[in-house]
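Incident log, support desk, overnight shift.

02:14 A customer reports that sequence design results differ from what the structure should imply. Their input is reproduced verbatim below. On-call engineer (initials T.W.) acknowledged and began investigating.
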């Protein structure tokens, strides 16, 4: 099977968005911030069973979605979007034939091919806070996951103090212009490097259709170099 895949330009890779993989690094954070919650990140919660969890999302229903899946019941939830500075912004929730695509909600206008499948956009004003502001109430060593559909760079810019105490960051890194005005990948990598966090692994890659499809985004793990 592997030979057949190689002949087609493909390869088999392990699934790394799993608790045992992340636990293998030996992280023991006091607090883990999950930014951009949707219906939760169960494998992350299982990987850090002794940590306090702080979940942040501008969609209030995400808290109940996490509770209902049963993996994480004890957590703090902040109903807000995160950005470079406090204020307000417009949250865009795409609507397709299936209904509201809440997992694709974004502060940015989507410009990739996926946007063609939307039949409407449900927009609402939301509060914007900074990661540093929220994180002040949760001291200690930290872990961080950011998946905000295009505004990851702004979250990082608003969390420079928090990044300095992170043992790991899991970041959805856009490597194509999926959104209008999306930050360059190099800008995010530099911010993390300035905080002492280095790129260590690509956990997942999302590509378009076809054999020549280019990656659209990657879930990337950054850690301290000694980890």
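02:41 Re-run completed on a clean worker. Output:
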């Amino acid at each position: 099977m592997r030979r057949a895949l190689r002949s087609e330009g493909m390869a088999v890779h392990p699934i790394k968005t799993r608790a045992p993989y992340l636990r293998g690094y030996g992280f023991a954070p006091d607090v883990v911030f999950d930014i951009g919650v949707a219906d939760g990140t169960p494998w992350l919660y299982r990987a850090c069973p002794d940590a306090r969890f702080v979940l942040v999302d501008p969609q209030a229903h995400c808290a109940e979605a996490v509770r209902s899946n049963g993996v994480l019941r004890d957590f703090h939830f902040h109903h807000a979007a995160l950005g470079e500075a406090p204020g307000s912004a417009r949250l865009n929730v795409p609507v397709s034939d299936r209904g509201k695509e809440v997992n694709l909600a974004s502060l940015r206008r989507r410009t990739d091919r996926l946007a063609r499948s939307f039949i409407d956009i449900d927009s609402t004003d939301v509060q914007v806070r900074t990661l540093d502001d929220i994180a002040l109430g949760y001291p200690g060593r930290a872990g961080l996951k950011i998946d905000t559909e295009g505004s990851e760079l702004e979250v990082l810019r608003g969390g420079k103090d928090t990044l300095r105490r992170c043992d790991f960051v899991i970041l959805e890194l856009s490597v194509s212009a999926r959104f209008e005005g999306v930050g360059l990948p190099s800008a995010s990598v530099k911010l993390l490097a300035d905080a002492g966090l280095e790129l260590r692994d690509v956990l997942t890659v999302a590509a378009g259709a076809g054999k020549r499809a280019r990656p659209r985004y990657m879930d990337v793990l950054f850690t301290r170099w000694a980890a």
